[in-house]
Structure formats: structure tokens, C-alpha cells
Amino acid sequence: MRLTPVRHVAQRELAVGMASRVFRISTVILILAVLAAVVIPKLTAHRSARVVVDLAIPGHTSINREIQSAAALTKLQVIIHRARTPMAANLALRRGQVAIAVEPNAIVVGHNTSNSATLELAHTLAAELGFARFAAHLPPHERPLLALARPLDVRVLGGHASDSAEIAVGLAAIILIYSLLSTYGYRIAGGVSEEKTSRIVEVLLARIDASELLVGKVLGIGLLSLVQILMMLIAYVLAASLVGAPIPLGHSFSMILVTLASFLVGYAFYATLFAAAGALVVRSQDVYAISLPVQIPIIVGYIVGFQCLLGSPNLFDRILGYIPLTSPVLLPALVASGTFSFLDVVIALVICAVGAVGAMRVASALYRTSILWTGTRPPIRVLLSSRSQGAANRI
Amino acid sequence: MLEVRGVTKRFHGALALDDVTFTVKASSIVGFVGPNGAGKTTMMRAIVGITATDSGSILFCGNPLGNQSSLVVGYMPEERGLYQGMRVRDMLSYFCQLANCDPSTEVAQMLDRVDLTDKATAKVESLSLGNQQRLQLAVALVGNPRLLVLDEPFSGIDPVALERMQGILHERAASGAAVLFSSHQLELVEELCDAVIIINHGRILADTALAAVQRDLSVRIRYDDKPSQERISILETFGPTRLTDGRVVEIMLSDSTNAGRLLDLVLSQGGVRDFHLGERPLTETFRTLIGKDTADAR
């Protein structure tokens, strides 16, 4: 394969794509969605939290200082309530009357009220209390050992490890990946079918090899999608800077990386399959119907991803997370729900990348066989016997 | 320059090309003719490398065409293909890039060559069919290919555009390129070509210089009344004979030196209104060869 024709084909796809009205409109819509996602929470955010202190905690009156210190560090206004019994504290938490309960050995965050602000407060308070308790038992000459102080445990009521912010990021990630894979997949299928039905593919294949045309098209449209993602990221950073929203760091940043990696391997997996579907088209209006079988696993991943984020992921969901057909859409949801560890993500991405190589081989053989086959759809036996070398065309 | 040797191609059992062999020399224009489904398009696709052959070889200047086809061959398919949403200039620029030539100079020259300079910024979809045809030819000519393979290049264009395109092909041939084109317009083939290749059922029936084909003579005799079968039988001794419209008999002279003897005979028979002696048209050669081949196939 020669790189120069691949570059020229990719350049054309990128230029035509960026000049298209669909790209411009969809980019504007996505940027507006990003701006809304940054600005609206900022405008509606409660910068206060109610904290209940269980009276069962020995010396509870003395933890006021730590609570106020944590509130100051997190810039939150804190209202402290007293619970007469641990059960009353727990009930207030479950009802959403308070956001955080301080138990003897842990900080509990209410499931309904958990968000990044209350979680930040909970972790800060856990560190403050852990430090204070450790310090209380240290004689003055052992003060250097304070560095060994451990924070109290922080848990979310109901055992759900993720907070609502993580779920929101996960949802945004799977919606984004689903939208991008579908949009750009159909763009590839549509472009291939247009070249086939308009017969320009014959003129192109007289100049360049089918694999050069296919790779150039996939790369060009892939770059187009990255341009759109980049514009969304720039819009996010600018908007976050303007309204003073936090730029994602730590876990949220990891989610962005997982989302980007999932999209890239997903695109690599699906792009050539969509191209093969486009090459099977006899009439250009059939492109959506022919592409549907390729689209279905993406839809399945999308639905299961929602289920993972809004419910409890099960073994089946985990298995789908490793299967290349569904993992690109599902991975961010499994990470956001705390189901997949870093190692799981790496394994799933590697499996998907290997699957993408296999998909490319099969799809490019189908593409070669079908792209010059006109009048009728190639018979199944011909498709099954497709080889990557040589074109099985007909008059 | 172009040598096609023993090329065979089957499509799922059906023989599309049967041991096809011919050559196209540099600086020549060769017509590739045959009825629909004869194998012209398949052969042309094989030459440009978009259809794989089962056996045989296609050589260009003694080397397999294969990988070099993209750089030396300009191709115009039978069914026209252009990006309808693209601008004319961008379209040519894109194909210049694919042909490894500089669009900054080539595009303007090509637009001028096919008379589309004033349409440079127009979208392809806004062009008339004739102008799209010109653009399609320009796409094939991009990069000054040394071999032009044109499938029905003159179908559906007006006489002015036709003349222009003929001029371009003559120019390309004069500059050393080999031109192979297919057409059903046999009078055009006669006018434009140096040689003709006739194909039917995937087999080459004739591959000859046009001058040699036209050396044969034909006689057209119009009688006052329908000639009797006895008269026709006598005429058949001079060559293949057919009654065309009741009173007109056409004879392809097997031996052109017999023309005088035939005239004497016809005059002695009487009842003749008109006797016309002329070069045998390509149409007749084509009809004879195809008819014979079809009869043999039965």
C-alpha cells in the first residue's frame, strides 16, 4: 500500500467533511451541549451541605472544628445536625435530609445527595478526623509520626461506589461514543455507497488500489471525528475556565482517557465494517438498511451501558465489556460504575484492538469483492469466499 | 506498447474473455468494437487493473502493467462516475494528486483543453451531460497517461463536443500515447481509428489496420423489380450476397478484381436501375464477422 494516495484520499474526506453542512450543524449542537453541561450545573449548584453527627460518637462536640475546617477547605457551607441515635442519623441520610453522616469509624455519604462536592467534603472530613484522632493519641515527642495518620473510611449509602458525577460522566461518555460511532460509521457507509452507485469508484480504482481508497477514507473520516472531539474539548476547557468550573483531573480525567481510547478502538473496529456494508449497497437509499446489522451491537452496548450506570452491573455485562462488538460503547459505563479496574480496561482495549485487526481483514475482503459488483447484491457464497487478493468482479 | 496475451476471464463459470490477444501500438488510435456483452468492458477493466484475469498477461512496454497502471493509464468507464457535489476544479485537482502530478499547473491546462475553464467553480451536478462527459475525459487525461482506455467515450455528446474530443484524442496519439476506445458508432471508428479490434463472445474476431478492412469492395444493385432466386444464386458466386429491401441486393466482393465482370453480367441481365461500387463499410465487415461467429457458435 502506498501512503501518498492514502493521504490524498484522507485529505479529501477531511476537507469535504468539514465543509459539509451536517458537520457544521452537528458540531455546533455538540458544543452547545458541552457548554450547557458546564454552565448549568454551575448555575444550579448548591454550595451548602447538611452534615449530621451521630451522638453515639464519643466526644462528638469536639469534631465541630474538623467539620468547619473541612468546609473551609472545600469552600462549602455546612449545617451541622445532631442525631440522637445511629438509626436516626441513618434515617436522615436515607431520606436525603442530610448529605453526610459521621459515624464512629466512617463517613457515610447519602446515595441521593452524593455529588462531587459532597464527596470532596466527605473525603476532606475523613482526612481531618483521621488526623485529629491519631494526633490525640500521640505524645508530643512522637508528633513526626502524624504523617502516618490514616483518614476514616468513606462509603456511599447503599454500597454504590460511584457518585452521581461519575454516573453523569459515564452517561455522557457512552452517549458520545454511541453518537460518534453511529454518525461517522454511517458517513463511511454512505460515502462508499455513493462512490459505488455513482460509478466513480471505477475511475478511482484505475488510479489507486482498493485498500488505499478504503484506508484513506477511514482515516479521513476518523480525523474528522477527532476534529469534532477536539472542538468539544476546547469548548469545555474554555467554558470551564470562564465560569470557574473544575477542569477534570484525577478520576474524571481518567474517564476522558478511557472514553477517547474506547472511541478510537471502536472506530478502528467498526469503520471498515461500515465500509463493507456500504460496498454491499445496490441502491444508495438502501445504505441504512444494509448498515443496520453493523449498528445493532453498538445499540446493545449503549443499552447495557445505561443499565450498568443506573443499576447494578452483572456478570453478563462484564462479559460484554470484553467483547469487541460491545466493549467500545460499554467500557466507560463499566469504569464509571466501578465494575472495571484499570487492568480490566487494558485487557478489554487490547482484545478490541486485536478484534479490530480481524474485522479490518474481513471487511476489506468484502469491500474488494463488493465494490465493483453492480446490479444485484453479491451472493453469500461469493462473499464467504472473498479473499483479500484480487477482485471478483462481474460485468 | 500495450500487449494483451492470451487473457482469459470467467465469471462463475461463464466465459467472458477467451484467450484474448492483441496489441495497441504507440501513437495509434484503436477502435474496440463488438455487440453488447461481447467482453469489451471486461477487457478494458482488466487492462486498467480493476478486474483480475484468470490467465494471460497484459504488458505495457514489455513489462506487466499491474502496479504501474495507475501512473500510465487514463481510464474513462462506460458508466460515467463523478463526485456530483464537488466543484469541477477540486475534482480535477484531486485526480491530479492521485496521478502524482502538480494540480497548480495541470488543472488549468486541462480545463482549457476540454473547454471548461468558465465552469471551474461550478459543482459537477450543475453541469450538462455533455460537460460532465468532457470533465470525465479530462479526469482520464490527467497526468498525461501514455495509454488511454476509453469505454464508449462519445456516447451522448453533441457534434461540437464530439469534434473537440476527437481532436484531443488525435493530439494524445500524436504525442506518442496509445489510445484504445470502444464504441458502437462504427462510422466514428472508421473516421478516427488507425486499427480496429472486433470482439464477440469474448473472442477476438479481427485485429487489423482499418485500411486493410476497407480494401474490400461492396456492390449495391437496385433492380426495377424483385430479382429472382436464380439471379441471386448467380450473384452469390461473386461473394456473400443479401437482399436488403426487396429490390436491392448487396454483394461483398470476395475478389475486388471481379467488379468489372460483375458489372458486365448485371448489365446483360437487364432490369437494373442502379449499380454502385464502393469500399466495404466497417459496418458490413462487423455484421459479417459477428453473424458468422454467432452462426458458428450455434
Explain what you see.
The complex is a heterodimer of chains A (395) and B (298). Chain A folds into two domains: 3-40 and 164-384, no CATH class; 46-156, 3-Layer(aba) Sandwich (D-Maltodextrin-Binding Protein, domain 2), CATH 3.40.190.10. A five-stranded mixed sheet of chain A has the order 2-1-3-4-5. In chain A, α6 (164-197) packs antiparallel against α10 (287-310). Chain A is built from 14 helices and five strands. In chain A, β4 (106-109), α5 and β5 form a beta-alpha-beta unit. With 395 residues, chain A is of the alpha/beta class. Chain A has helices spanning 3-19, 21-44, 64-74, 86-94, 116-136, 164-197, 200-207, 210-243, 250-280, 287-310, 315-322, 327-336, 342-370, 380-384; strands at 48-54, 77-83, 100-102, 106-109, 153-156. Chain A is 67% helix and 6% strand. In chain B, α3 packs across α4. Chain B has 298 residues and is α/β, with parallel strands linked by helices. A six-stranded mixed sheet of chain B has the order 6-7-8-3-9-10, sandwiched between helices. Chain B has a four-stranded antiparallel sheet with strand order 2-1-4-5, covered by helices on one side. Chain B starts with a strand and ends with a helix. Chain B folds into two domains: 2-212, 3-Layer(aba) Sandwich (Rossmann fold), CATH 3.40.50.300; 217-279, 2-Layer Sandwich (Alpha-Beta Plaits). Chain B is elongated. Chains A and B meet through α1 and α7 of A and α1, β6, α3 and α5 of B.
